[in-house]
Design a protein that fits this description.
Helices cover 30% and strands 20% of the residues. Strand 9 and strand 10 form a beta hairpin. It has 201 residues and is α/β, with parallel strands linked by helices. The longest helix has 12 residues. It is built from 7 helices and 10 strands. The chain has a 10-stranded mixed sheet with strand order 1-8-2-3-7-4-6-5-9-10, sandwiched between helices. Helix 1 packs across helix 6. The radius of gyration is 16 Å and the shape is globular. It has a single domain, classed as DHBP synthase, CATH 3.90.870.
Length: 201
């Protein structure tokens, strides 16, 4: 179901409706500062399994999740001083940072590596959702596994009939986040995406 939303000042009742669906274990589509994402409540294992099915993703592929700000990250990831300096410089922004997971993160999310991919997008809609939900939102690109991101919310709604809602903020970007692994103590670029990497390395 398409639900138009103001990308700069998301209407509180529409955010509340999205949160209500997430709390019921539903999956939604939403805009970010890079591409449209598909997401569910981090703490709902069945919803996460449905995301893997919807996208046709292998279970050994990690899913990232969205935190509202830097202070929230330390609940779910181990953040050393040098790591914090990197995060503070580049977030919010078009990056996913891989960090060691804390015990707050369910084991079905971090798999064997005990790491998590964390996002703080520079976009009011997903940030408003996670603030209202009170916990992170699983986030994966709105596209079948291995395919290009779908930029049109109408097409996302058509392509993934299992979604309870697609928050429609107009056509979005087509380049996913830059993925940066900080879990080993150094900086490793895993995927070049929307975020520039020159200043990182």
């Amino acid at each position: 179901m398409l639900q138009p939303i103001n990308p700069e000042h998301p209407e509180p009742r529409k955010i509340a409706r999205a949160v209500e669906l997430l709390e019921k274990g539903e999956i939604i589509g939403y805009p970010t500062d890079t591409v449209y994402g598909l997401g569910c409540d981090l703490m709902n294992k069945q919803a996460i399994e449905r995301i893997y099915q919807l996208k046709g993703m292998r279970k050994d592929k990690n899913l990232a999740f969205i935190c509202p700000d830097l202070s929230d990250i330390s609940r779910y990831a181990i953040v050393e001083n040098h790591t914090y300096r990197v995060l503070k410089r580049f977030l919010p922004g078009p990056y996913t940072f891989i960090l060691p997971a804390t015990r707050e993160v369910p084991k079905y999310v971090h798999l064997k590596q005990k790491t998590v991919g964390i996002r703080v997008p520079n976009h009011p809609v997903p940030v408003a959702i996670v603030r209202a939900l009170g916990r992170p939102l699983i986030s994966t690109t709105a596209a079948p596994s291995g395919a290009e991101p779908i930029i049109d919310p109408y097409e996302i709604d058509e392509r993934f009939p299992g979604l309870a809602m697609v928050l429609d903020a107009g056509v979005c970007g087509s380049v996913p986040t830059t993925v940066v692994d900080l879990s080993q103590g150094d900086i490793r670029i895993v995927r070049h995406g929307a975020g520039p990497v020159d200043d990182l390395v």
